[in-house]
Design goal:
17 helices; 5% strand; Glc3Man9GlcNAc2 oligosaccharide glucosidase activity; single chain; 6-hairpin_glycosidase_sf; Glycosyltransferase; MGH1-like_GH; 9 strands; mainly alpha; 6hp_glycosidase-like_sf; 428 residues; hydrolase; binds (2R)-2,3-dihydroxypropanoic acid
């Protein structure tokens, strides 16, 4: 069975599908965008070439207009719904979904580049990936911020990566369900219903998918007409961080970073609209109503990962963090435990997620809140030790939920050096 370090390595190796990493056996058999970013960083500690390969595989699914889809369907698998034929992209290059996901890719490339041992290979790979990421970010601004607010919209909850976050409840209620053909969920074969989004959400997820198909994937029309259109604070924080990492890469690779600089400046202005002075917290914005969505979710902390808040706002967020964790055993619940929508077991409605813990710990270290960063690290380690490499964990009991042997949980444990080979060695 081996120690924890060995188990983390095994999780990645077992989920390796030859060039890309499935997030979890059965439940997620294809390649997902933001999973790939975190997984590539984990692979770096095992196999440097394989780490770069993860990102090249993902870009096989990039669309000619620059869009990077949230799922790339390299090879048909029966265990997942909705597959490529439902998305309607079979035969269109590499079959994929038609929406994107939090753009962590430039951050991953910078991480691989800066931690490389094979510098020549890293430079060659980063040079090859740089224009593809630039085209992707350009697409995000052209297709999802046509009015140049500095913040990009998402048109589907799946694009936020935090599918059933209660922040989406109200905007999603406007999405109809009529006309969705009968379907059979496969996720429920691998995870308990109480750990997954509800049917009323799935019906709407699918309505949007078929709506985008009816619009023939015309991205302008999708932006104009989607009944679900939000500025997700988490997505934009990850993008803003990615732009700074892309800027750093441009400088290191001798590329012209002017356009990236503009995105960075415009986002700094745009983020002002997401700060709520009454609650001293960041919220997403519903573009249909023009109102901030005042539900406290872990995404509201992510502007710290992007270096957005100044000292004062960072202090307020640190206070929020301390208050949130008083209600739970393990940091950080994905929803404030006193929100009426909090459910400790259900996906993005309360459980702890390791990728958020990692991003936030990085942020707290940068802002000098070392105690909070340590708390996130230690809690994550304890969760893994007690309950394994799960997809998410109940913040009160710690019990693992969702997928088992989840790739980014293992990958980030390696990135974070939570687990080392030494730890596996028998005590002297
Ligand atoms: C799923 O299938 O649950 C995914 O989150 C969609 O991307």
């Amino acid at each position: 069975m081996g120690g924890l370090y060995e188990q983390a390595v095994q999780v990645l190796r077992n989920n390796d599908r030859g060039g890309f990493t499935a997030p979890a056996q059965g439940l997620y058999p294809y390649q997902w965008l933001w999973d790939s970013g975190f997984n590539a960083m984990g692979w770096l500690h095992l196999d440097e070439r394989r780490a770069w390969q993860e990102l090249f595989s993902l870009f096989e699914g990039q669309w000619p207009d620059g869009m990077v889809p949230h799922i790339v369907f390299h090879k048909k698998q029966e265990s997942y719904f909705p597959g490529p034929e439902v998305w309607g992209t079979v035969g269109r290059g590499c079959a994929s979904s038609v929406i994107t996901q939090p753009p962590i890719l430039a951050t991953a490339v910078r991480y691989l580049y800066e931690h490389a041992r094979d510098h020549a290979f890293a430079r060659e790979s980063a040079k090859a990936l740089y224009p593809r990421i630039l085209a992707y970010h350009r697409w995000l601004y052209q297709a999802r911020d046509p009015n140049r607010t500095g913040l990009v919209a998402v048109v589907h909850p799946w694009a936020t990566g935090m599918d059933n976050s209660p922040a989406w409840d109200e905007p999603l209620r406007r999405v109809p369900t009529e006309g969705v053909p009968p379907y059979e969920r496969k996720d429920l074969l691998y995870a308990k219903p109480e750990e997954r989004p509800r049917k009323e959400e799935y019906d709407r997820y699918l309505w949007l998918l078929y709506f985008f198909r009816r619009l023939n994937f015309d991205q302008r029309a999708i932006f104009r007409e989607s009944p679900f259109k939000v500025i997700d604070v988490g997505f934009n924080a990850i993008l803003h961080r990615a732009n700074q990492d892309l800027y750093a890469l441009a400088v290191m690779l001798g590329e012209e970073p002017h356009e990236i600089q503009e995105w960075i400046v415009e986002a700094q202005v745009g983020f002002q609209a997401l700060w709520d002075r009454e609650d001293n917290f960041y919220y997403s914005l519903d573009l249909i109503t023009g109102r901030r969505i005042r539900v406290k979710t872990s995404a509201g902390f992510l502007p710290l990962f992007a270096g957005i808040p100044g000292e004062g706002r960072a202090r307020r967020l640190a206070e929020h963090f301390r208050e949130w964790v008083r209600h739970v055993r393990y940091a950080l619940p994905s929803v404030h435990p006193l929100e009426p929508s909090f459910e400790g077991t259900r996906y993005w409605r309360g459980p702890v997620w390791v990728n958020v813990n990692w991003m936030l710990a990085e942020a707290f270290w940068d802002y000098g809140y070392d105690d909070l960063a340590e708390r996130l690290r230690n809690d994550t380690l304890e969760l893994i030790r007690r309950f394994g490499f799960r997809e998410y964990y109940h913040p009160k009991t710690g019990e693992g939920r969702g997928g088992k042997d989840f790739s980014w949980t293992a990958a980030l444990a390696l990135v974070w050096r939570l687990l080392t080979r030494d730890e596996d060695a028998p005590a002297a």
